[in-house]
Each structure stands twice: as C-alpha cells, then as structure tokens.
From TrEMBL:
Residues 180-615 form the GS catalytic domain. This is Glutamine synthetase. The gene is glnA_2. SMART domains: Gln-synt_C. Residues 82-175 form the GS beta-grasp domain. The keyword Coiled coil applies. PROSITE patterns: GLNA_ATP (PS00181), GS_BETA_GRASP (PS51986), GS_CATALYTIC (PS51987). SUPFAM superfamilies: Glutamine synthetase/guanido kinase. Belongs to the glutamine synthetase family. GO terms for biological process: glutamine biosynthetic process. It comes from Gimesia maris. Gene3D superfamilies: 1.20.120.1560, Glutamine synthetase/guanido kinase, catalytic domain.
Length: 720
C-alpha cells in the first residue's frame, strides 16, 4: 500500500543532533530556571527566601515576587523567549497552557517587555472548557492558576520561537482544586506532618522536610506516522479497534532488551537531549516485551516535580517522534494480542537528613524505623486497596489489568522473601519485651543480610517492594501519575498518623518503651493487614481463588472500581488530611465516569464507522470477485468448490448483524445516571464492539490483501 511505500522510502529530514555538539554536563538544566540559576541571578535575601519556600514549605512573601519575576523574565528573554505560559494540569490528565506575550505596547508605537510579580504568581485562564465535575457552573468560569514555587520554571523551544513556562496549580475562585497538582501538594504536606511525628519518636526531629519521591518508568509504542494517519481508530481513540494478530507476535521474546533499531535510537537520543535540557534526569532506555514497544525512565525526584516532569516527558516523546516520522503511542493497549503499556510508579519517602525512609539496610530486622515505615505501607495498602484500584481505573487501562501481561485487578503487596520472613517473625513473636537495652530487637536476629539487587523480582505484583521503594505497577501508561501519588501519600500519611498516635500514647514520651511498643504495634498490623502480602504468581487462577478467601477486593473494571471514591472511608480519609474536600472528591468521580463513557462512545462510533465504510466495502468487493470467478468457472464447466465464497458471505452477514446490534444497543442507552450509563458501556457496548471486531478480524484473514483498507498489525509493528 501507499503507506508501506512511504515507510520503506523514509529519509531522515532534519539534521542529526548528538550529544557531542554540547557536552551532557552543559545540557542538563540548560532550559530551567534552576536553583543554580536562581542563586546567580537573585539578590541573596530573595534567593534565601525562595529556597526556604521550596525546601521548608514556607509561604512566599509577595514583595519578593516582583524581584523574582523580573529575574526570570530577563533570563527567559536572553534565551529568546517572547511569551510566557502558565502551565496547569486539568482533570483530563493532560497538560494545559495559557500563553501571553511579554510585550506591552508603549503608547508611542513601540513595545516593552513586561512581566510583574503578579503575572508570575497568578493567572486567570478561561477555565470554562475544562471539566470541573459540578464544582462550578460554566457561567462562573473563573479559575486561577497559581505559581507552584516548588516546581521550576523552564523554557520550551520550538523551531519558531521559545516560551517561558511556569508550572501552576489551577483552582476555582472559591479555592477548590480543579487540577491534578493541588492535591499532590496537599498530600505531600500531609505525609510530611505525619512522618515528622514518627521521626520525632525515633529522636530525629530535625525539622527537615520529609518528601515523597517518585520515579516513573514509561512504556510506549512507536509506529510510522504513515500507518497512524491511515488508521482512523488509532488517530481518534489511541488504539486499534480492528486488526488480526500478526503471524509473528511477541512469542519469540526476541524484542525484549534486543538491539534498538536505528531510527528509534535517533529518536531516543533527540528526546533525551531535549529532556536533559528541561532538567529531566533520564536514566534508562530499552526495548520492551512487545514488538515496537519501548521504555524510558528518569531518576526519581520529589513527587511533585516528578509529576510535572512526567507530563513533560510524554509531550516531549510525542513531539520528537513526529520529527522522526513516527508517532508515539502512550495508550495502555494500542494493539490487541500483544502486551500493553504501563507506567511503573516507584515511590518512597525521604528527607535530607534521614535519607530514604524505606531503605531496609543489610539487616532489616534491626532497623526498627524502617520496619515501622514499611509496616505503615502494609496497613495502608490493605486498608485502601479499593482506592488504589480506583486511581488506576480508566477505559484504556481496563484492557491491561488482569490480562496476564499486567498485574491483576486484585491489589496485593510483594515483599520478597527476606522482608516477608522478618514480618512473619514479628507476627509470630507477639509482644516480646525482653529487649536488651541499646539494640533494636524488633523480630529475631537470625536473618541473612539483604542481598543487594535482590534477585527476587516479581513482575506479576501490582505493588512490589523493590529493594528500597515500592513500585506501583498497575498505573496506566497514559495516566497522569498525580492520582496514584495522591493516593499513596495520603493512605500512608493515615497509617503513620495511626502508628504515631498509638506509639505516643503507649510510650508516654519514654523512649525506652519504644521498641517494645513498636513490636506490639507491628504484630497487630500483621495480624490485621498481613493478608495483603502475596509473593506468588499474580497471574494464576489459584491466586484469584486465594485472594477471594483472604477477602481481598477484585474490582475487575473501571465501573466496579470508581464507586470506591464514594465510600465513607475514602471521603473520611481525604477530608481528614485536607487533601480533597467532599465536593472536590465527588467532582473527580463525576469527571472520571464521564471520561470513561466518552472514551467508549468514541470507540463505539469509530467501530461502526470503520466497519461500515471500510471493512464492509472491502468484504463485498472481494465477495464480488469471488462471485464472478465462480460464475466464470461454472461457465467453463470446471470443477470447483465455493468454500471461500461461502465463508465470506457468512462473515459479511454476521458483520452486518453485529453492526445493527451495536447500533441498537447504542441507541437504547443514554441513562441520566452516570454510573448506570458507564455500566451499560462496560457490559453491553464493549462486548458488542468486540463481536464486530472478531468478525472483521476473521475477514482480514480471508479478504485479498490488496483490498484490505487498514494497515495491518504485521505492517505497523514490524516495519521500522
Ligand atoms: P526496573 O525496570 O528494574 O524496575 P528502572 O531502573 O527502570 O528499574 O527504574 C527504577 C526507578 O525507580 C527509577 O526511576 C529510579 O530512580 C526509581 N527509584 C529508585 N529509588 C527510588 C526512591 N527512593 N523513590 C522513588 N523512586 C526511586
Ligand atoms: Mg520497574
């Protein structure tokens, strides 16, 4: 086809860029108003104040804002910027920007560059077209963007100009969060407060901020853009709604960690170069399991910055792919029958003085502080397993979870052999009070030292301990990581609060009682919440049975999972720690249900349209060819059979029936209630779409290749 010809004739059409031109050391942060740049450009006092805001969470004094604004402006203009943009993160999960020019007319026909503190700190985009889930009627569309001092401003380059970008929170004029960032900041604050209480119990009340950290691994597909534009389904819904399995799939496992194709490598170099300039510390890249699938991972950063960077990373991958004649697909399941894409969110917490609080050291049984933080996570994940499932729920991620390529929809924790053993001992030991003074003796002393880089990996677990952090693997590749981070920060804050309160009361401020009481507390946690720990094969049927016996939730679809956001315990959780008010939480449920319904309806419309206007015509053309061929053979008195014609005719009939059924089901829906509408989409529309697809995919295996209207899996996945 034309698409294949265009692909095989591809020539790189822009000058190659490489790291040699500018050493990496100079590239990193080149386009960021970083702490180092601040230090150089700001008066000492102003710099100090800004740093104390960033590091200590103190309020920014408005009078310094003008000074900062003017420094940022000068810096940006030196870098060629003509515009500035407040960047914000609406609940759609995407990134939004409002651009303004620095230039103000000067009255005498010239223009001067202006940028005041108030323009830096606050903006007012017309928020009416962003979903607010009922928080605000559209006639009162006032929404404000507020500078997030903790996330640095940066410059975005384009071949025709550059823009100063200022990361902001987006709130309504009543102060309610309309975005993904605000709750991240609030949840980090909640976690810090509770973690400080614990550190104080251990004698570490040095006041250093405890920050949650995140390192997201991003999986994605690359395909040639000629194929992309020839597939209305990919173009409009991000995934293929039709397409038979290629003769060679991923069963050979020869792509995983294989050599990276040249064009892809060129793309990676350029993407990484751009990301470096933006201060995004890219560390790893490799092929993933499926053909055409890759992964990129930065070093971990503070959760808030990691979230902003993650959004920027997805945008950069998409932009750069275009330049290389490809399209970057971040959908969770662009191709049926080959692995989908996830985003493993590595999560931990730490402070400048204490380091990583989830680092067990070589002898975890002696590391009481670690055991407490780890125990708090165990309790949190068990108690709020439904919430963790809800924050990764989307129409697209439903195709992955539980599909034997991604973790099951059942949330459990993989601890690995060593830690499981330590915690089992704690559970069996009960309250052991014969603790020799001076040593930390929670648990027993008989454990082997932690093998660094523990060989015990378990890809089937949705929430795995991986040496010094937890890795939340159920997150979808297209998702903002904000939701999962808000959930993790808040549920762990809740557990730390629980532990701190118990220990403060039980010890009455006497540090010598701490370890005995901690032993009791951890035993209790293991008894009540230990059933969340599972180190076995999460893909197996036995686990589904076992999990049911343990009373763990198995929320298979988005429709099952999202209502968790309405439960009293989740409302209580978020209001207690002032992360989300009831109204803010309810608005999120409404928006996520709406997004679910909209995605499936777009797919429904595309399925009908493609089936009717592309696949059906191809099928009857081929049927026509077969008919005239049979007629000719008959005229010549040849002996022949009509098997192919019969099969095509049968499939054409079932394609037509399938389309009619789907259309009827679509017309019969439109419920006022969002949840029942979503349920209808899940349990009626989707299966009927799959039925139409199954027929079409069978036709693909029969109809003449030159008549088939869509690029095939074989072409899309294997042509580089
Ligand atoms: P793998 O593919 O083996 O799981 P990668 O090296 O691809 O590992 O990714 C691991 C991710 O975990 C990286 O982003 C890394 O920075 C991150 N990480 C490491 N330590 C922490 C931590 N303390 N908190 C959060 N993320 C972390
Ligand atoms: Mg990983």
């Amino acid at each position: 086809s034309a698409a294949v010809a265009a692909v095989t004739g591809y020539q790189p059409n822009h000058p190659p860029m490489n790291f040699q031109q500018t050493p990496t050391g100079q590239l990193f942060n080149a386009n960021v108003f970083s702490t180092a740049t601040m230090k150089k450009r700001l008066p000492k006092q102003v710099y100090k104040q800004l740093i104390s805001t960033i590091e200590g969470g103190h309020k920014l004094d408005c009078s310094t804002a003008d000074v900062v604004a003017s420094a940022i402006k000068d810096w940006a203009i030196e870098k060629g910027a003509t515009h500035y943009a407040h960047v914000f993160y609406p609940l759609t999960g995407s990134t939004a920007e409002k651009h303004d020019s620095f230039l103000s007319p000067d009255g005498d026909g010239s223009a001067i560059a202006e940028f005041s503190g108030s323009q830096l700190i606050q903006g007012e985009p017309d928020g009416s077209s962003f979903p607010t889930g009922g928080i605000r009627a559209t006639f009162e569309a006032r929404g404000y963007t507020i500078w997030d001092v903790t996330s640095p401003a940066y410059i975005l380059e384009n071949s025709n100009g550059t823009t100063l970008c200022i990361p902001t929170a987006f709130v309504s004029w009543t102060g309610e969060a309309l975005d993904k960032k605000t709750p991240v900041l609030r949840s980090m604050q909640a976690l810090n407060i509770q973690a400080q209480r614990i550190l104080k119990l251990f004698g570490h009340d040095d006041g250093k901020l405890v920050s949650s950290t995140a390192g997201p691994e991003q999986e994605y597909f690359l395909i040639d853009r000629n194929f992309y534009y020839a597939r209305p389904d990919l173009l409009n819904s991000g995934r293929t709604l039709f397409g038979a399995k290629p003769p060679k799939g991923q069963e050979f496992d020869d792509h995983y960690f294989g050599a990276i194709p040249d064009r892809v490598l060129a793309f990676m170099f350029e993407a990484e170069r751009e990301l470096f300039k933006l201060g995004i510390p890219i560390k790893t890249r490799h092929n993933e399991v499926a053909p055409g699938q890759f992964e990129i991972a930065p070093l971990f950063e503070s959760a808030n910055i990691a979230t902003d960077h993650q959004q920027l990373l997805m945008t950069t991958l998409r932009r750069t792919a275009e330049k290389h004649g490809m399209v970057c697909l971040t959908h969770e399941k662009p191709f049926a029958g080959v692995n989908g894409s996830g985003k493993h969110v590595n999560w931990s917490m730490g402070s400048a003085s204490q380091g990583n609080l989830l680092d067990p050291g070589d002898t975890p049984h002696e590391n009481a502080q670690f055991l407490l933080f780890c125990g708090a996570v165990i309790r949190a994940v068990h108690k709020f397993q439904g919430l963790l499932r809800a924050v990764v729920a989307s129409a697209s991620n439903d195709h992955r979870l539980g599909a034997n390529e991604a973790p099951p929809a059942i949330i459990s924790i993989f601890l690995g052999d060593q830690l499981t053993d330590v915690f089992e001992q704690i559970k069996a030991g009960g309250a052991n009070s014969s603790i020799p003074k001076g040593t930390l003796t929670v648990g027993a002393d008989v454990l082997p030292p932690l093998p660094k880089d523990a060989g015990d990996r378990n890809r089937t677990s949705p929430f795995a301990f991986t040496g010094n952090r937890f890795e939340f693997r159920a997150v979808g590749s297209n998702q903002s990581i904000a939701g999962p981070l808000v959930a993790m920060n808040t549920i762990v804050a809740d557990s730390l609060e629980y532990c701190a309160t118990k220990l403060e009361e039980a010890t009455g401020g006497d540090p010598s009682k701490l370890h005995g009481e901690l032993q009791k507390l951890l035993t209790e946690i293991m008894n009540e919440h230990g059933s969340i720990i599972f180190n076995g094969d999460g893909y197996s049927d036995e686990w589904h049975e076992e999990a049911a016996k343990r009373g763990l939730l198995n929320l298979k679809t988005t429709v099952d999972a999202l209502p968790v956001l309405e439960t009293q315990e989740v409302k209580d959780l978020f209001t207690k720690y002032e992360v989300l008010s009831e109204r803010e939480l309810a608005s999120r449920l409404e928006i996520y249900l709406e997004q679910y319904i909209m995605s499936i309806k777009v797919e429904l419309n595309l399925t009908v349209k493609i089936a009717k206007t592309m696949i059906f015509p191809a099928a009857i053309r081929y049927q026509g060819e077969l008919v005239s061929n049979c007629a000719s053979l008959k005229m010549l008195d040849y002996d022949f059979d009509t098997n192919t014609l019969d099969k095509v005719t049968e499939l054409v009939k079932s394609l037509q029936d399938g389309i009619s059924e789907l259309e009827a089901a679509a017309a019969g829906s439109e419920s006022e209630d969002m949840l029942s509408e979503a349920t209808h989409c899940c349990h009626t529309i989707l299966p009927l779409m799959n039925k139409v697809r199954a027929t079409a995919d069978e036709l693909e295996g029969i109809v003449a290749d030159d008549l088939w209207p869509l690029p095939t899996y074989q072409e899309m996945l294997f042509i580089k």
